[in-house]
Amino acid sequence: MSDALLKFFASLIPVIFLLSILFALVRKVRVYDSFTEGAKGAIPLITSLFPYVATVMMLTKALQTSGLEDKLIEWITPLFRFLHVPSEIAELVFVKPLSGSGATAMLADIIEKYGVDSYIGRCACVVAGSSETVFYIGAVYFAERKKPRLRAALVIALLSYLLSVVISCLLCSIL
Amino acid sequence: MLHTDPQSFLPAVLSGASSAATLCLSLLATYAFWLGVMRLWEDSGITRMISKLLKPIVGRLFKLQNEESKRAVAMNVAANLLGLGGAATPFGIKAAKLLEEEENERYSSSMLFALNATSLQLIPTSIVAMRAALGCPSPASVILPILLSSACSAVCSILLVRLFIRPTTVPKKASEKRGIGVRQTVGDKFFRRQPNARKAGKTGRREAGRI
Q1: What is the DSSP string of B23-81?
Q2: CA B57 to chain centre
Q3: What sign for the dihedral angle of Cα A113, A117, A123, A124?
Q4: Closest Cβ opposite residue A38 in set B35, B82, B109
Q5: What's the farthest any 2 CA atoms get from each other in chain A?
């Protein structure tokens, strides 16, 4: 069943692409012109994004190598224990809002170490699946704005992230 | 780090920057594709159809007036739900830019950010694919918990944004006439803010403060 499911998702994007081209043809849109016109926008978009993405990633890297991150994880572990989040995934929980690729690598590590269907492996999967790279999204979405005014929203996003982590671990122990 | 290994600072930061550069390059490719598709959708009217479908929800949740920004937000939400992250981002950036001109600029863009940061999607494709690739016998078993927990965090952020970042719901003139223009949120009380205190008049304020 899951194989069929995966195949379905793999074919979702090409199918959407084909359908949108067909639909555009029916609507008599000039497909090539329109597509290139849109793709043109990618370059200015990336140039405006780059400084923000670079800053976030440099900070992340500095945080990791300086050992500050390990310290923070150490401090936060009692809180996690209180919330019944297994300490094995504390690092993943910490990295996920900062860096997507880092979190993916960490998730693979955890799964390899503890097994895909172990409690910890499942917890890690659910935590990673039900959250986003909060800081990265903030940097990207609001790069082109003059005054982002996002401090409150950032706090809210991080709080909900923590909630989703707690709920994930709870659900994994029940389901 | 300063007393253990100061030499590793610059290489570490630079490696961060260079992974940002590679990330941006791959993003350039992704965005070229999705922005092209996005333009195609806009020109052929698909965007308008989807946003019409989602308009009731989007209009309520984000309190938007402008048609164009409604459309961008609706497309962002739709792409997120379908799990097309590559498509969601350009729409989100566009929406964030358009929201800047909205009346409820702070509220609606906070909502946009909070919703996008919760990764609410119908099927968490990437995780399922990863589990399958690692040889898990039941890769789909995490779908339900992921769905539940991301739904919880989405609801939580929506509520918190509503609570702490005040939407000025009604167009100002009408509400002032009726004398209910000032809505004090829990957030206002919490931070001892007085929304438009001078304008509201004393009685209105006192009542609002007591809620």
Answers
A1: HHHHHHHHHHHHHHHHHHHHHHTHHHHHHHHHHHHHHHHHT---HHHHHHHHHHHHHHH
A2: 14
A3: positive
A4: B35
A5: 62
Other Cβ atoms closer than 10 A to B155? 14
Quick one: pLDDT at residue B203?
Answer: 45
- Which tens digit of pLDDT belongs to each residue from A75-106? 888 888 888 888 888 888 988 888 887 888 88
Round to whole Å and give the CA distance between B160 and A163.
12
Q: Which residue has the tokens 């880092």?
A: A102
Judge if ipTM > 0.90. no
Supply φ then ψ for residue B164, to 5 degrees. -100, -20
Q: Residue B41: closest CA among chain A residues belongs to which residue?
A: A20
Q: Quick one: tokens of A51? A: 């400084």
As a whole number, the mean pLDDT across chain A is 85
User: A20 and B44: CB-CB below 8 Å?
Assistant: yes
Cα A38 off chain centre by: 25
Q: Which residue, chain included where needed, has tokens 């224990």?
A: A81
The residue to which tokens 């310290």 are assigned:
A71
Q: How many CA atoms lie within 13 A of B132 on its CB side?
A: 17
Rounded Cα distance, B34 and B88, in Å: 9
Token look-up 């949120």 returns: B185
